[in-house]
Design goal:
alpha+beta
Length: about 400
């Protein structure tokens, strides 16, 4: 609520300043009755109704200056000093010096706030000296307590404001860094996917080259074998072309190190992955399996691998996992569930596993969901459109 009020005050500085001055202006109006009846409220020079109104306006107007607390305090202090020098009786509008003191302590640095506090203390002393009754230390102490309380309140509000602004700045910086890290992670994941798809395409092209060489040697001696090699080249070429279409738009950035041209794992290696996992896991396949492109098989393999890794890190001791592959219909479902800690597991702010899953599934027009299950444990569900291998 205070944050919304502060934001509104920043947008409407003049109106907010008028609202702050309104209570003091109302007090001056109410306490101005003795001047209307031409009866002096105390010692000192009596200025009359016109002087009361004019002096009150002079003391209140500087409070309406937006964003200039030092200038407002200086102007009000000078007017009060002139009033004291002319031996004019104290007015309710003289309380504006305390309002200006609070504004200086709230908006300015500590040295200016300290200087304003000392000036206000000097004003208390001068006001007591000008009274007809002899001033005592108790009277000065009471007035000083009032001034110091307002001064400390302004300092506290200043400290609180700076603390909140620091929190907002750190939150904005953390949000920018988080977005930047997410973009970097997405770019790195795209580069890794591009390398893996490159390996798949390179493997297919290598097969085509070998088959073409074999067909060239067997063309005269074994025409049937040559025809079979040509059919294999056609099938492999269509598969490579499909993978190249998916490769378009995926940026490959700053690849370092040696490139591994061995074929990437696919569905045939899922059982081996599950058997070698540190988390006890089972594989369940439903429906009639169909032949999928190597790139899509690689995506499924990596999704299962990442889900089992998450189960190992967050599932806790004794957790078990179930990997389900469901064929049938227009989509292929990949579901990895575990019976671990689920929502009670500690979060890992630096992980990008889910980002990688989304990147992989998004390349084939699918979707992925990951989160705690209502009955306990964690679930990763990926839905990929069925794309038959060429």
């Amino acid at each position: 609520m205070f944050g919304r009020v502060r934001a509104w005050s920043r947008r409407h500085e003049k109106l907010a300043g008028a609202l702050r001055v309104a209570p003091l202006a109302a007090l001056c109006t109410i306490l101005g009755v003795p001047f209307v009846t031409n009866t002096s409220p105390g010692g000192g020079q009596y200025v009359g109704l016109a002087g009361y109104v004019g002096l009150s306006v002079l003391l209140l107007v500087p409070l309406l200056w937006p964003g200039r607390p030092l200038a407002a305090f200086s102007a009000i202090s000078l007017i009060c000093f002139g009033q004291w020098a002319a031996d004019v009786n104290l007015l309710p509008a003289n309380l504006s010096v305390l309002v200006a003191l609070w504004a200086v302590a709230y908006e300015c640095s500590f040295r200016w706030a300290l200087a304003a506090g000392l000036v206000a203390e000097l004003g208390v002393f001068m006001a007591l000296v000008s009274w007809e009754e002899p001033a005592t230390f108790g009277m000065f102490f009471s007035g000083s307590i009032f001034v110091v309380t307002i001064w400390l309140t302004g300092l506290y509000a200043n400290t609180r404001r700076r603390y909140l602004e620091g929190l907002e700045e750190r939150a904005e910086r953390a949000e920018r860094e988080r977005d930047q890290q997410a973009r970097m992670a997405a770019a790195a994941e795209r580069a890794r996917i591009a390398r893996e798809l490159h390996d798949v395409v390179a493997h297919n092209v290598s097969v085509m080259v070998v088959q073409a060489d074999g067909a060239g040697f067997a063309l005269d001696s074994d025409p049937e074998q040559a025809r079979q090699a040509v059919r294999t080249i056609s099938k492999t070429g269509r598969a490579a072309l499909a993978e190249m279409r998916r490769l378009v738009g995926v940026l490959r950035e700053n690849e370092h190190g040696e490139t591994d041209y061995t074929p990437q794992p696919g569905l045939a290696q899922l059982e081996e992955l599950i058997r070698g996992s540190a988390v006890p896991a089972r594989l369940r396949v439903t429906g009639v399996p169909s032949e999928l492109p190597e790139g899509q098989q690689l995506a499924i393999y990596r999704i299962v691998q990442e889900a089992l890794t998450n189960a190992l890190k967050h599932g806790g001791p004794g957790a078990e996992a179930l990997v389900e592959i469901e064929y049938g219909g227009p989509d292929l479902l990949v579901r990895v569930t575990d019976d671990g800690r689920g929502a009670a597991a500690p979060s890992s702010p630096g992980g990008h596993g889910l980002i990688g899953m989304r990147e992989r599934v998004g390349m084939y027009g699918g979707a992925v969901w990951a989160g705690p299950r209502s009955g306990g444990g964690f679930e990763v569900l990926a839905r990929l459109p069925m794309v038959k291998a060429a």
